[in-house]
Design brief:
This protein has about 350 residues and is of the alpha/beta class. It folds into two domains: about 210 residues, Rossmann fold (3-Layer(aba) Sandwich); about 110 residues, Dehydroquinate synthase-like, alpha domain, CATH 1.20.1090.10. Helix content is about 40%, strand content about 15%. The chain is built from twelve helices and eleven strands. Helix 4 packs parallel to helix 9, helix 8 packs across helix 9 and helix 9 runs antiparallel to helix 10. It binds glycine. Glycine binds next to loops. The site of glycine has 5 residues, from loops.
Amino acid sequence: MDYPPNKKPLHFRIGEYSTKVEFPAFEDLLAPPEGVKSLWVFDQNTAPLFSSREKASIILPPGEEAKTMESVEDILTAGIENGLARDGLFIGIGGGVVCDMTAFAASIYMRGSRVILIPTTLLAMTDASLGGKTGVDFRGYKNMAGTFFPAEELRICPDLLSSLPERDYISGLAEVIKHAFLVKSDLFEFLEREREAVLLREPQILGRMIRESIKVKGDFVERDFREQAERAFLNFGHTFGHALESVSGFAGWSHGEAVAWGMDKALKAGVLMGETDPDYARKVSAFLALYGFRLEAPGIDPEALINAMGKDKKKREGKIMFVLQKEYGKTFQSEIPRDILQKVLA
Ligand code: GLY
């Protein structure tokens, strides 16, 4: 492979904050920040990855079930017990759950301290850790409480992905692919050309793919940090996808698989509405299928899906706004007429 990994940091100006994205080697991932007290936040999956445990740290239970106010309280308590002041650093090491909660805790600790994130899944590296959306689940609602508080530094090490379960890797890949559809860049062609190497997780290929994907997302959040406009395009495939996740009881479909299915459905709806170029929609279907994504959800009731969409958090003035595309790189938001929804979901 002739892609020398580009390890130069990336810098993003996000609202009044700035985020530096570093690409350190594995052994440098846990380099302690100098001259400031810090608290390391692991979960039970990530704690064993790192052997040097003399640092002030807390280990949370793994998974979405632990994304609670209680976990945030535990992080805040550990912050106090370890003597962090307002300039203290919370350092989250894990997937989206750990990153979201660590950043949330940091954002409210003494009215806002500091946070570094070390994402360990593809989804967290390319999506969750960048852009400052923090939060916890509350009263059964996902990410119901949260803040906008970008990390000052992200440390990305693609080597961590070699041990990620296949399902989680593929789930993250769907968000990378989403970035490729949203913006005309080298990423789409790269993913087409290097499919085998991407699926085999070849380290150099991963390094390049993650870097390009971060650039796309970073550009969106720089332009629209608080999601007043085009940041919402990052929800492409998500209204369909969330509905599928919820109707299938979060079983059988990972988040990314549901989003990939959802992007295909959104484009098919766009074609029926006369908005989306049918050739582009066909190309996307073929691309997703080659990556192994399922584009049909047999046994799922279309009416149940439509009802679940009605509960989507992203409603505006009571309307369900879907992210659609006219063609590659041309994205917009619109309602979808009910009869068209029924057709694409049938
Ligand atoms: N994951 C979508 C966003 O950060 O806006």
